[in-house]
C-alpha cells in the first residue's frame, strides 16, 4: 500500500518526507559581505604572497568522482 507520505511493505510502515538540498542564494550572498567574511578575507590576505584557498561542496555520497578530484588537486599543487 502506498500513499503520498507512507509506504507499507514487509509488515512495516515507512513514512516519507522530502528535504530541500539547495541553498538560499540571498542568504549566502549576505554572508559573503558580512563583517565576519570580510575579516576572514583580510586574515587570509595577511598571510602574504599569493594564498590559495580550495573550497569544495559535495553531496553526502562524496565517493563519486573522488579520484578525479584528487588528480585535479595534485595538478593544482604542481602548478
Automatic annotation (TrEMBL):
Gene3D superfamilies: Glycogen Phosphorylase B. One of its GO terms (molecular function) is alpha,alpha-trehalose-phosphate synthase (UDP-forming) activity. InterPro entries: Glyco_trans_20 (IPR001830). GO terms for biological process: trehalose biosynthetic process. Pfam families: Glyco_transf_20. Belongs to the glycosyltransferase 20 family. This is Glyco_transf_20.
